[in-house]
C-alpha cells in the first residue's frame, strides 16, 4: 500500500507511563503503516524533562507556534512522591501549564460518543464541547481570613492617576475576604480562541457568565466577546450558518440540559472547571474525553483529557497485559493529522483522520471494548479485550476502509 504523504511535520510530544506505551502501539499499528509520517519529535517524558531541566517542554511549545499543529501524550505533573520516584532535582511544572502559557491558548474538551454508551441526560445526541478560560479569577485570587471587626476596602492606584476606593464591607465580626482579577488581553485571547474553534469545527458558540449580578467584572467578559464577534467573526459565522449567542449562566445550564448537544459552551475559569467535570461524567467516561488547546492566533494542540493511567502502568510493569482505553489518544492523533491535512490542503490526510475515527467507533459498536466501557455498554453484548487487541481490531477495520 502507498502511504499517505505529508507536507509539514506534526509536532509530536511523547509522554509517560501507560499512555507512553499506548502511544507507541498506536503509532506502530494505526499510523505508520498508512501515513508517511513526518514529525518534529519532543520527548516530554519525565526523565527527559529532568535531563533538559524542562527546556524540552518550552522547545516543544515553540515548535507548535512554528508549525501550527501538535499532538501530545499524557505526562506526569510532578508532586513530592514523583520527585522521589524519579530522583528529580526540581518539582518541574505541569507541561500542559507551560505549553498553555506559551501558546496563550484555551482548552476545548469534548466527549467521543458511541451508540451503546448512553449519556445520563436523555436528550443529548451530539457532543457538548466545553471551552474553559484557564486564566485568573478565583485561581489567582488574594484571600484574607478577617479575624475581627473592621473595614474592608477595594483600592486601585493607577500608574497614570486613575484611582478607586470603595468600602466592600464594614465587618462587625470575623469573616472572609477575597480579591480577584482578570485582564482584557487574556479575555480577548479567550474570545478569539473560541470563535476560531467554532469556525474550525463548524459548531455554534454559547457564552455565559453572571453579568446581571457582576455588572463590571462579568459584564466586561460579555462586552469583549460581543465586540470581537462583531468586528472579526460575524461575517464568517453568517457565511457558515453558525450562531454566537450570549446568555446568563443560569439560563445556559437549563438550555444545556434540554439541548441535543452539538455546540461549544464557553465558560469562565471556575464555571468551566465545574461544568466540564459535570458534562464529562454525564457523557460516560474520562477515557473518552478529547482535549484541544487552541491559541488565539490559530495553533492547535491535540491530546487526551485523562492522565498517564498510573495504576494500569504498575500492572503493566509486572507483566500484565492491561485493558487501558486508547480512544482519546487515538482521537488526538486523528484530530491532529486531519488538521494538518486541512492546513496543508492534503485531502487524503484529512480523510485518513476521519477514517481512523470511524474505524475506532465501529470497533466499539461491534462490542469490542476495553474494560472501562464494558460496564457502561447497553443493548449489546460487549467483549473485553486488551489494549493491543483493541488497537489491532481497529487496524483491521481501518485497512478495509483505506483499501
Ligand atoms: P488518570 O491517569 O486520568 O487516571 C485516573 C483513573 O481513571 C485511572 O486509574 C483509571 O481508573 C481511569 N482512567 C483514566 N484514563 C483511562 C483510560 N484511558 N482507560 C481506562 N481507564 C482510565 O489520572 P491520575 O491517576 O489522577 O493521574 C496519573 C498521572 O497523570 C499523574 O501523574 C498526573 O499528574 C497525570 N495527569 C496528566 C494529565 C495530562 O497530561 N493531560 C492530565 C491528568 C493527569 P481505574 O484505575 O479505576 O481503572
Ligand atoms: Mg475540575
Describe the structure.
This protein has 403 residues and is of the alpha/beta class. The protein has 3 domains: 1-111 and 296-403, Isopropylmalate Dehydrogenase (3-Layer(aba) Sandwich), CATH 3.40.718.10; 118-140 and 181-283, Isopropylmalate Dehydrogenase, CATH 3.40.718; 142-179, no CATH class. Helices cover 45% and strands 21% of the residues. The protein is built from 14 helices and 16 strands. Strands 2-1-3-14-13-4-5-12-10-11 form a 10-stranded mixed beta sheet, with helices on both faces. Strand 10, helix 7 (217-240) and strand 11 (244-248) form a beta-alpha-beta unit. It is globular and about 75 Å long. The model has no long low-confidence stretch (mean pLDDT 95). The protein binds NADP nicotinamide-adenine-dinucleotide phosphate and magnesium ion. The site of magnesium ion has 2 residues, from helix 9.
Secondary-structure map:
Layout: E1 10-14, H1 17-31, E2 39-43, H2 46-51, H3 55-67, E3 69-72, H4 80-85, H5 95-103, E4 106-111, E5 128-132, E6 142-146, E7 150-157, E8 163-171, E9 175-179, H6 184-201, E10 204-209, H7 217-240, E11 244-248, H8 249-258, E12 263-267, H9 269-283, E13 289-294, E14 300-304, H10 310-317, H11 327-343, H12 347-365, E15 368-369, H13 371-374, E16 383-384, H14 387-402
Parallel strand pairs: 1-2, 1-3, 3-14, 5-12, 10-11, 10-12, 15-16
Antiparallel strand pairs: 4-5, 4-13, 6-9, 7-8, 13-14
Magnesium ion is lined by residues 273, 277.
Radius of gyration based on Cα positions: 23 Å
Helix/strand order, N-terminal first: EHEHHEHHEEEEEEHEHEHEHEEHHHEHEH
Helical fraction equals: 40-55%
Instruction: Enumerate the distinct ligands.
Output: NADP nicotinamide-adenine-dinucleotide phosphate, magnesium ion
* Weakly predicted, low-confidence segments: none
CATH homology superfamily name of the largest domain: Isopropylmalate Dehydrogenase
What would the principal axes of the Cα set say about the shape?
A: globular
Amino acid at each position: 500500500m502507498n502511504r499517505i504523504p505529508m507536507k509539514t511535520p506534526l509536532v509530536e510530544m511523547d509522554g509517560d507511563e501507560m499512555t507512553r506505551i499506548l502511544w507507541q502501539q498506536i503509532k506502530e499499528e494505526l499510523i505508520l503503516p498508512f501515513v508517511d509520517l513526518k514529525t518534529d519529535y519532543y520527548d516530554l517524558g519525565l526523565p527527559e524533562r529532568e535531563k533538559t531541566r524542562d527546556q524540552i517542554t518550552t522547545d516543544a511549545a515553540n515548535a507548535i507556534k512554528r508549525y501550527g499543529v501538535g499532538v501530545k501524550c499524557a505526562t506526569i505533573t510532578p508532586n513530592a512522591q514523583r520527585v522521589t520516584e524519579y530522583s528529580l532535582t526540581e518539582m518541574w511544572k505541569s507541561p500542559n501549564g507551560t505549553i498553555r502559557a506559551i501558546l496563550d491558548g484555551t482548552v476545548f474538551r469534548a466527549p467521543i460518543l458511541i451508540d451503546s454508551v448512553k449519556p445520563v441526560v436523555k436528550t443529548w445526541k451530539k457532543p457538548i464541547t466545553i471551552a474553559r478560560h484557564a486564566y485568573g479569577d478565583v485561581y489567582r485570587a488574594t484571600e484574607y481570613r478577617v479575624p475581627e471587626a473592621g473595614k474592608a476596602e477595594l483600592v486601585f492606584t493607577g500608574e497614570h492617576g486613575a484611582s478607586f476606593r470603595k468600602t466592600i464591607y464594614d465587618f462587625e465580626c470575623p469573616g472572609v475576604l477575597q480579591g480577584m482579577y482578570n485582564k482584557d488581553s487574556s479575555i480577548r485571547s479567550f474570545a478569539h480562541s473560541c470563535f476560531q474553534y467554532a469556525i474550525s469545527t463548524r459548531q455554534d458558540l454559547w457564552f455565559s457568565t453572571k453579568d446581571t449580578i457582576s455588572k463590571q467584572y462579568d459584564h466586561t467578559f460579555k462586552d469583549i466577546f460581543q465586540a470581537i464577534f462583531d468586528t472579526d467573526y460575524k461575517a464568517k459565522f453568517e457565511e457558515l450558518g453558525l450562531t454566537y449567542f450570549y446568555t446568563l449562566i443560569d439560563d445556559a445550564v437549563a438550555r444545556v440540559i434540554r439541548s441535543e448537544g452539538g455546540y461549544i459552551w464557553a465558560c469562565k475559569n471556575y464555571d468551566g472547571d465545574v461544568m466540564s467535570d459535570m458534562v464529562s461524567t454525564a457523557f460516560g467516561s474520562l477515557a473518552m474525553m478529547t482535549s484541544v488547546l487552541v491559541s488565539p492566533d490559530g495553533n492547535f494542540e491535540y491530546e487526551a483529557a485523562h492522565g498517564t493511567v498510573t495504576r494500569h502502568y504498575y500492572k503493566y510493569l509486572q507483566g500484565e497485559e492491561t485493558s487501558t482505553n486508547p480512544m482519546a489518544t487515538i482521537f488526538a492523533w486523528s484530530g491532529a493529522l486531519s488538521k494538518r491535512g486541512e492546513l496543508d490542503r492534503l485531502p487524503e490526510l484529512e480523510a485518513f483522520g476521519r477514517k481512523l475515527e470511524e474505524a475506532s467507533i465501529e470497533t466499539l459498536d461491534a462490542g469490542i471494548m476495553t474494560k472501562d466501557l464494558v460496564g457502561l455498554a447497553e443493548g449489546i453484548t460487549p467483549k473485553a479485550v486488551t489494549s493491543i487487541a483493541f488497537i489491532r481490531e481497529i487496524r483491521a477495520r481501518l485497512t478495509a476502509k483505506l483499501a
